[in-house]
């Protein structure tokens, strides 16, 4: 393992496990970074904490990798997601044979983010929703829930990529589902509630959910700036303006209280030198 890189594993059986408990464990792990003195949290009007993630290190590697081992235990299927701790981005996954796959392109077109010793293979696909599913709006109506999670784990567990090939459309859709059910649900309250409400049936996010996930950074930074936790420490703006993009009808988030009804984990500012 590279010096300075910590890996924490969370194990979750998508068929037999409790989804709500899994998301709470993931959120707790993301909030408990070191040094403990750097941890911050914003408390909403109901006295519920909303942790601030560690300073962003992108495009460099994070201080911690969160390995999320998703199982269909009765069938012997397992895939491990590699998630950054500073922005909760899914960077790659491992199949049941131990082979890592990473978003990006071969031939020197992409910098490798996963540690070199993991010997990852590029998926020939960008990390954003545009590359994965042709645009974030294609998430609208995409099936979510226990059985979609089971099918995604089956697919990634058995995934193998032919030399010179790239990730297929079916696998991309499964990756998009897992990003929503794991990463977006950890970040955002309505996304988690939507998945949880439809876990044993079928759920799907609506168009407004997509606008909200596009604006996770803007909501996070608006809250931090309003509370005097701006990008320059110890300097507080007097009445910082609320971002105009958050006032758009499709978003309609007008103040800190409304933002905290949506955002559970607050995206931090980039660290110095990043």
Automatic annotation (TrEMBL):
This is rRNA N-glycosylase. PANTHER family: PTHR33453, RRNA N-GLYCOSYLASE. Its EC number is 3.2.2.22. InterPro entries: Ribosome-inact_prot_sf, Ribosome_inactivat_prot, Ribosome_inactivat_prot_sub1. It comes from the Eukaryota. Keywords: Hydrolase, Plant defense, Protein synthesis inhibitor, Toxin. It comes from Miscanthus lutarioriparius. GO terms for biological process: defense response; negative regulation of translation. Belongs to the ribosome-inactivating protein family. It is an enzyme of class 3 (hydrolase). The keyword Transmembrane helix does not apply. GO terms for molecular function: rRNA N-glycosylase activity; toxin activity. It catalyses: Endohydrolysis of the N-glycosidic bond at one specific adenosine on the 28S rRNA.
């Amino acid at each position: 393992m590279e010096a300075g890189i910590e890996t924490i594993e969370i194990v979750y059986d998508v068929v037999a496990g409790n989804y709500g408990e899994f998301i709470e464990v993931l959120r707790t792990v993301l909030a408990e970074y070191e040094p403990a003195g750097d941890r911050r949290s914003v408390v909403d009007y109901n006295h519920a904490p909303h942790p601030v993630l560690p300073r962003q290190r992108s495009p460099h590697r994070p201080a911690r990798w969160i390995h999320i081992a998703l199982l269909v235990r009765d069938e012997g299927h397992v895939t491990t997601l590699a998630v950054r701790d500073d922005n909760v981005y899914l960077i790659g996954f491992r199949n049941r044979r131990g082979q890592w796959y990473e978003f990006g392109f071969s031939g020197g077109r992409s910098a490798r983010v996963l540690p070199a010793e993991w010997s990852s293979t590029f998926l020939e696909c960008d990390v954003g929703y545009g590359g994965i599913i042709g645009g974030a709006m294609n998430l609208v109506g995409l099936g979510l829930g226990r059985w979609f999670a089971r099918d995604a784990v089956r697919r990634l567990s058995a995934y193998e990529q032919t030399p010179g090939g790239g990730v297929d459309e079916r696998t991309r859709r499964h990756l998009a589902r897992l990003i929503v059910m794991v990463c977006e649900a950890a970040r955002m309250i309505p996304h988690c509630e939507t998945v949880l409400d439809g876990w044993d049936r079928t759920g799907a996010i609506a168009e407004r959910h997509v606008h909200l996930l596009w604006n996770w950074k803007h909501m996070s930074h608006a809250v931090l700036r309003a509370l005097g936790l701006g990008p320059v420490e110890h300097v507080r703006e007097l009445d910082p303006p609320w971002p105009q993009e958050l006032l758009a009808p499709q978003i309609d988030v007008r103040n800190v209280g409304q933002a905290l009804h949506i955002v559970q984990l607050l995206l931090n500012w980039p660290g110095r030198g990043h």
